[in-house]
Design goal:
Two copies of one chain form a homodimer. Chain A is of the alpha+beta class. Chain A has a domain of 73 residues: Orthogonal Bundle (Arc Repressor Mutant, subunit A), CATH 1.10.10.10. The first copy, chain A, contains six helices and three strands, in the order ααβααββαα. Chain A has a three-stranded antiparallel beta sheet with strand order 1-3-2. In chain A, helix 1 packs across helix 5. Chain A is elongated. The termini of chain A are far apart. Chains A and B meet through helix 1, helix 2, helix 5 and helix 6 of A and helix 1, helix 2, helix 5 and helix 6 of B.
Chain lengths: 117, 117
């Protein structure tokens, strides 16, 4: 069984490539697509697309199902939930930076008003 | 200048390693730390830790500052904000799955109540 850290490794590794992110974004809009539909917007050849799909599938981010001669690819977003939860703990840092910026902007505004009087 | 896609590439790549994630998690607690403090919990040697810090710094996730003989490492969480925003769009998929589960659980409960009458 793949543990939490290994799942995060695979999810983040799957997301390091812009083509793989574009494939996931495409599936986000249409829920499922055939391999030729997925390959269409890219300039890379079909075997390269297939390799990206292998990485996405081994990270658990897509499912492939064959029916007749068509392979349907479907999004499995669940592993991204864990990745997002991992990132979530850093949220307070950017919230804090935003708070600091707000305080700075407000005190600058007050100072301007004082000099204007 | 590094564009949006390249920034995402680097951020996700920096996050693919459990040691690098542990370094970031350590900095999340203490805001800043010396290199020896950061290296302490790991079984790997100092040069290996330094390599991980290089990756984190080139992804913009940490700052290193030298004062005398001590190098202080500080967290820069901002790039993770973009990564989280990217993941955020898939949230509706797991929310939908949760909604479906809630509906299933509720109808199962209703069915149980009906048979109990």
């Amino acid at each position: 069984m793949v543990n939490y850290q290994e799942r995060l490794d695979r999810t983040f590794a799957a997301l390091t490539d812009p083509t793989r992110r574009a494939i996931l974004a495409r599936l986000e809009h249409s829920d499922s697509a055939s391999i030729s539909e997925l390959a269409e917007p890219f300039e890379i050849k079909l075997p390269a697309v297939m390799k990206h799909l292998d990485v996405l599938e081994s990270a658990g981010l897509i499912n492939r199902k064959k029916s007749g001669r068509t392979v349907t690819v479907r999004l499995r977003a669940q592993p991204m939930r864990e990745a997002m939860a991992w990132l979530h703990r850093y949220e307070r840092f950017w919230s804090t930076s935003l708070d600091r910026l707000t305080v700075l902007a407000e005190s600058a505004e007050k100072a301007t008003r004082r000099t204007e009087r």
